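Spend some time on this chain, tokens included, and walk me through the fold:

. . .
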Amino acid sequence: MGLKYQGKERRRHRMYITRNTEYHFRDNLCVAVKDRRTNTWLDAHLALRRKLTGGVRVLPNGTAIPIAELPEVGEALYFSDEEGRELITSRLCTVERPAKRVVDTYPKAV
């Protein structure tokens, strides 16, 4: 049995995956978006270079409730900005840490 690290989380990258799309973050900034069907990076996605505001939890009756915490599986990503523009993704299938080899392939515009 290995020891479990108890200190502050130092990893900066996180990948949120919906049915069709991967959203890649460095800290809370979306740095890359990939279409899962074509396996290509999307250079003009509305989430790029936007900070993650929180999530949206959908209740069994269909009511959507915004949450301030990082979203979990079954919830959606929520982005907003100072100009009042909002973006809500579809529900998350999984949340993972991308492998370094994936991070190394991020488009250079980030």
